[in-house]
Amino acid sequence: MEVPYNQINKFSKLVIDYVNEDKNIKPFINHFPTLENFEKQIIEKQNHPINRVLLREVLKEQNANFTLSKKTKNNIDTILNKNTFTITTGHQLCLFTGPLYFIYKIITAINLSQQLEEKYPKNNFIPVFWMATEDHDFKEINHINLFGKKIAWNSKQFGAVGSMRLEGFDAVIKALKSVLGNSQNAQKLIQLFENAYLKQNKLADATRYLVNELFGKHGLVILDGDDKRLKTQFIPIIKKDILESGFVNTIKESSEDLAKDYKVQAHVRDVNFFRLSEKKRELIKGGITENEIAKNPEQFSPNVLMRPLYQETILPNVAYIGGGGEIAYWMQLKSAFEQENIPFPILLLRNSALLISEKQWRKFESFGFNIENIFLEESQLHKKYVQNQFSDGFSLHNEIATFNKIFNTISEKTADKGLLSTIKAEQQKQLKSLHKLEEKLLQSEKKKHENALNQISKIKKQLFPNNGLQERFDNFTSFYLNHGENFIEILQAELNPLAPNFVILPLQ
């Protein structure tokens, strides 16, 4: 089942306007994400030079120590063809893939690639996962939430997370085992995670192994942008930003225009690169020479606003798939792309979904709710349930209407206009008392249905942890335990990348 984003109250105005193709969004994008618009995007990207030979070489080397599917190998080789394009998504190196939306991003990329292959059979489309190995926010990625428990990797390492060695991971796997249990699917997961985190050297390797095992058969290609040869192609932009602050005015102006209607996601700096060392990722505050950049481009790590430019410089990319926040900061950048004559890709909001078990749904339905009601606040659900226990609805609505009619009649009969304000004030006073009485009656009825209301609250908390979307909190492992390898296939079958709606997916 699909529900429009504007009915969920969890998405920004920018996201809602974007999926609805609002005219206010158009100045900040190239094309809206429709199958037909990809034809224009393909032509634009085809005319932009990409070093395909180098890209293929880097991909082959980065994946040399991993077992790739025939489809992924073919996709890497196909990059040499001028009619091959990439569909890219990316994310931080979250432990065990982190929240569910990590999975949704990749499935969206895979599904979109397949749809474009069908629509434009003369071209090839490759799903790409960009590993954010240069990120340094370890606290964001060092844990997962599983069955109400937080499982974390505690490490004192610093710097880019991709380079962190997997020291002390035995304890993490041990903690995970205690939660997952001993079922057949649990054993498969444990083996998968042990191979990823106990048999690889660095977090980047572990993430590559894990993602490849989960999605490799679908042809997913995994790329680490932290490569000297790739960054060499980016040297002109690195120099322009660090030595000339060449993007600050352009991006600032676009951001200010965007801020007239929407919340701006990222702050532009005079310099939008970090300097990488073995143990640090530091903001650049000056003192960098042109020669340093030319000699060691790998030392310069783009921030959130420069990474899109880097990505589109080295990839034959026609679409980027991201969450609402990512789409927002990409929109700050269209003028910067134009400044550098780099085609701005189609932005596609990743699929979002709520996974609900058959048991949860049957229980929820037994309380008299329909599926759309699941997005109501807990207090609203309680009120609705109690009201549903009465044939005419538990409300003083009719009484209040009668009360208002009486006061309106009194006002009409009043010849002294000076009394009207007094009558109105008394009316509001009495209405306030009636609403308070209604609330007290409701609370009294709630006590009679305490057990049912507790069950409603339990389901609501299960589906919306911390009152947020499930996809931003829960890990895929809890669903894999029930569905095994079929879980990925279920999601792939149900998520349509070009359908601008939130998906509610019942699982047996």
Describe the structure.
- By secondary structure, the chain is an alpha/beta fold.
- Among the domains are: 2-234 and 300-351, no CATH class; 400-446.
- 49% of the residues lie in helices and 12% in strands.
- It is built from 23 helices and 13 strands.
- It has helices at 13-19, 37-46, 52-62, 70-78, 100-119, 138-141, 169-180, 184-197, 203-215, 228-232, 235-244, 248-258, 290-295, 307-314, 324-331, 334-339, 358-366, 378-388, 397-413, 420-448, 450-463, 477-483, 486-494; strands at residues 2-4, 84-91, 124-131, 143-146, 149-152, 221-224, 273-276, 281-283, 300-302, 317-322, 346-349, 353-357, 501-507.
- It has a 5-stranded parallel beta sheet with strand order 6-3-2-10-11, sandwiched between helices. It has a 3-stranded mixed beta sheet with strand order 1-13-12.
- Strand 7 (273-276) and strand 8 form a beta hairpin.
- Helix 7 (169-180) packs antiparallel against helix 8 and helix 18 (378-388) runs antiparallel to helix 21 (450-463).
- The protein is globular and about 90 Å long.
- The protein starts with a strand and ends with a strand.
- The relative contact order is 0.15.
- The model has no long low-confidence stretch (mean pLDDT 91).
